[in-house]
Design brief:
Strand order of the largest sheet: 1-5
Structural class: mainly alpha
Shape: globular
Distance between the termini: 17 Å
Radius of gyration: 22 Å
Helix content: 40-55%
Strand content: 5-15%
Number of helices: 20
Number of strands: 8
Order of helices and strands: HHHHEHHHEHEHHHEHEHHEEEHHHHHH
CATH topology of one domain: Serine Threonine Protein Phosphatase 5, Tetratricopeptide repeat
Length: 459
Amino acid sequence: MKTAPIIITILSIMGIMGSACNKLVEIPASKSQIESTLVFSDSATATAALLGAYHLVGTASSSVYPAMKNLSLYSDEYAFTAVSTDINAFQQSQVAPANNANSGLWNNLYAVIYRCNAVIEGVSHSGGLSIPAKSQLDAEARFLRAFAYFYLVGFYGRIPLLLSTNVNENARALQSAPELVYDRISEDLQSCKTALPASYTGQARVRANRYAASALLSRVSLYRGRWAEAALEADGVITSGLYLPLPAIEGTFLTGSKEAILQFWNETGVVADATAVLPASTTVVPQYTLTAPLLQSFEPGDRRKAAWTATNTLNQAGTTIAYTYPAKYRNRTSGAAGTEYVMAIRLSEILLIRAEARANMGDVAGAVSDINQVRARAGLGALGTQITASDALTAAMKERRVELFGEWGHRLLDLRRTGGLDATLSGIKPAWIPGVSSLLPIPLNEVTYNPNLIQNYGY
């Protein structure tokens, strides 16, 4: 991969993060230095370096999170009404290795990983940090690294597993099999569970705690078909007492939401890509709209459809057209009522993880109970317990679709892990190639600069 440009970008960010993170931790401007001996000489500057990794995931306009809406285009959730060669390629599922939006996603995820590796190395060699401070900073960096690797392996398959800041090693790194990447993710998250406190650091849920590590580990275990582990990790989060009862639908994505296991802080209370997703007024065509299959998947009376979507109805050349768009986040400008942070992990997903795991283990009653908690908040009737395990799995996947739409590529990853990706998307996307389109291509520049990388099949 283009290691040197990524490193330059990270080092530049490290120089400015003192001001960017000032609301979270007060840091004297004179300490905003990129030299590791200074950055990790005390708790304030070391924390600022860590917060820079959080910033790169979900806060900055060029962070990882804004790219996720393109994965909703790639699946069957969103449609794009504007004209952009790179973004239209996602909607058509014809992403080429030279696609700039795809390169941006890859580079931003590895930028997070580089920053986390720098923090892990920096705190381990620091003589100015206390042992508890070292332990927490290291654990949070490992959590964020695991978070980034989860999406890299999910979207690209075989990827380089970089665990240091060594430029020469990283520039020629080989790819690792997905199982090895998942092993490393799970190992890091297990260590995070031990090192991180159950309580949150600071006044908001914007830094990972023990339950954030358990929640992500439950997701990883589910993806690997390790049902008992997934259920056990999910159970620890659900029974912690921190996240139940679920808040009202309208409050789900607000700052301080009861069900938030982890949110990504921002200074203005507006998520990074709000102006791209939310139309400027009711008289313009939204750039991102919801597809008919997604809209049809909501049951009558589902409060999620009313609260998490909105519609602009326009008269165009004598024809009335309704454009329904995602509105889980509703703030487009700073200072609007009801501040919002990007939701990274929330309890509804964990309830549905436990439901799916329980159904796979034959605990239908337990699975139905979890599903019904999510349905009750949506204003829907309870499912009966006299159903089969297969029916419970179908119900869990249906709830995942309408509950988690537009969030972090869940739909695309769910279809692939359950074996339904080719069958679902080949029927609605003419350019879809079974066995090829299920993974994104490794960016062209990465293959060019690192001769050891092998491009994904079909590209």
